[in-house]
Design goal:
The structure holds 2 protein chains of 2 kinds. By secondary structure, chain A is an alpha+beta fold. Chain A has 6 helices and 9 strands. In chain A, the strands form 3 sheets. A 3-stranded antiparallel sheet of chain A has the order 1-3-2, covered by helices on one side. A 3-stranded mixed sheet of chain A has the order 4-5-6, with helices on one face. A 3-stranded antiparallel sheet of chain A has the order 7-9-8. In chain A, strand 8 and strand 9 form a beta hairpin. The longest helix of chain A has 23 residues. Chain B has a single domain, classed as GMP Synthetase, Chain A, domain 3 (2-Layer Sandwich). A 3-stranded mixed sheet of chain B has the order 1-2-3. The N and C termini of chain B lie far apart (25 Å). The chains are: A alpha+beta, B alpha+beta. At the A-B interface, helix 2 and helix 4 of A face helix 1 and helix 3 of B.
Chain lengths: 206, 78
């Protein structure tokens, strides 16, 4: 983050000088007044200029957008990054071409990226408590629908064979989708087994 | 090919001493080997609990290299 110190005959002038140097709009900086001007005796002896320090401030939204765009560009992709903070979650949505590269097999790359973004987010902005959620081309929405269908189909299979069905390893979020989808199912029950990142959902006949 | 820059960029955001982040790249026809060096105090920041951060870094860097049809290896060295 940029820091600039500047002087002027008045505080206002010092701020203007510093802004010109830091090259940012006033709402992107924090102003600290280091010295008030004093005219001194006869405007000569002991006269002092106003001195200010401007520090660049950046919102978590902007910082994370810049960071994600930096990653995407270095992957040789161009994309639109949309950021929205709802008071709890910082939601980032990416749209563009060749987005499969950001998603990966079963969302592996997407989940790795989301994890890294969360680590950086909480390191840079420790006062922000909520998680950062990343989605690319509504992949998560589509995945949720696919997981709900999978849950219903495998519940049928469990009933037909009267055996437990073990699903592939999933993230906590994905496991929750499965549990929720079968929560009110009359004839099967669900639980998880194993340790992350290999924790799996099991669907069992009641 | 920007995998080296990608790795540097990610690592610098994770550590407390970004100026001490260095990546050495060795490349041949089929593969790229990247050696990531960070300040000793920052090792945990790029490895993470049970290597979770290192694993996520590798996943993202590999995805970037896939377009070049090259295998990429990321090593964290001290």
């Amino acid at each position: 983050m940029k820091v600039v110190e500047a002087t002027g005959k008045t505080v206002e002038e010092a701020i203007q000088n510093a802004l010109a140097e830091i090259d940012l709009p006033i709402d992107r900086v924090k102003v600290e007044i280091l010295a008030e001007p004093s005219p001194g005796l006869f405007g000569l002896i002991g006269s002092r200029l106003a001195k200010v320090r401007l520090q660049e401030t950046i919102t978590p939204e902007q910082y994370m957008k810049d960071f994600l765009e930096g990653i995407i560009n270095r992957m040789g992709l161009t994309a639109e990054v949309d950021v929205n903070y709802d008071g709890e979650y910082l939601k980032m949505n990416v749209t563009g071409n060749r987005m499969g590269m950001l998603i990966g097999k079963r969302g592996q790359t997407l989940n790795a990226l989301q994890y890294l973004l969360n680590v950086v987010y909480h390191k840079q902005f420790p006062e922000q408590e909520g998680r950062l959620l990343l989605d690319v081309e509504n992949y998560r929405g589509k995945r949720e629908e696919a997981l709900q269908n999978l849950a219903l189909n495998l519940a049928k299979k469990a009933l037909r064979t009267q055996r437990e069905v073990v699903l592939e390893p999933m993230t906590p979020h994905e496991r929750r989708i499965i549990h929720t989808a079968l929560q009110d199912h009359a004839e099967v029950t669900t639980y998880s087994q194993g340790e992350d990142p290999y924790r799996k959902v099991v669907i069992a006949p009641k | 090919m920007k995998v080296k820059e990608l790795l540097e960029f990610i690592a610098k955001a994770l550590v407390d001493h970004p100026d001490d982040v260095h990546v050495n790249q060795q490349e041949d026809e089929h593969s790229i080997k990247l050696e990531l060096r960070v300040a000793a105090a920052d090792m945990g920041k790029v490895i993470g609990k049970q290597g979770r951060i290192a694993k996520a870094i590798r996943t993202v860097v590999k995805a970037a290299a896939a377009a070049e049809k090259k295998r990429v290896f990321v090593e964290i060295v001290d």
